[in-house]
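**Entry details**
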Amino acid sequence: MNVFSKIIALIVLLLTLQSCALFSAAGLSTQGQPIKQVAPPLASANTVIVDHSIWHHLLQKYVTEEGWVDYEGFQKEEARLQDYLKILALNAPQKDWPVQELLAYYINLYNAHTVQLIVDNYPTESIKDLNGPWTRGFVPIGKRKLSLGGIENGILRKMNEPRIHFAINCASISCPKLLNEAYTADKIEEQLDKVTREFINGPKNELTGDSAKLSSIFDWYAKDFVVDGKQDVPSYINQYVQEEVSFGTTLEYLEYDWKLNKQ
């Protein structure tokens, strides 16, 4: 192979590696992690594979019922948070895990590493002020390092469970609240229903029968909200509200507040 051919081959290799990295960061790849499709209704699993109790106790201590976070408190117990993240890193998901366990693992993984990211950079006004919070691969699972965007888009969104959008928290005021308990396989259906119902009926949406001003989440991820096999945001919302949004109502989307969700 002549020098020119070697240079071309090297360029192709670099572009391939760069493309793989971009796909991973953007969440276009599962990054080698096992996923399973949710088949509603999501029954509770009886087995417990990963112990999320450390995370649960930290959430109970430093997150209010409304989802406001005491990051200074987390800083004081960062060693315990690190212990939990090590448990997750050393217990990589397996293909034989039930879908309930996979959901609980990935949701807790996302939320705990988001809190750790803020703790590492605290004080900060917004997660968006940080360097590549959703694209950098800093979340260890086994021998891999995932990005938060990869966990959300490449793993959780591919599991056919749109309620994950109300379970993962991006450390911002307009985000769905950080639940002050760990997600677990035996309670996952109850927990996902709770956070979805609370978010849709809460102050981050403005709903009346003939008016629908929605969180931008319903705009960004509209294709995930499927009813009877087709994208249908109003019908999805109507499954959880007391006063249904009228057919043909024009949807408006509220400005997203990215300020930190600190206490």
Remarks:
- The longest helix spans residues 3-26.
- The mean pLDDT is 90.
- The CA atoms of residues 63 and 69 lie 5 Å apart.
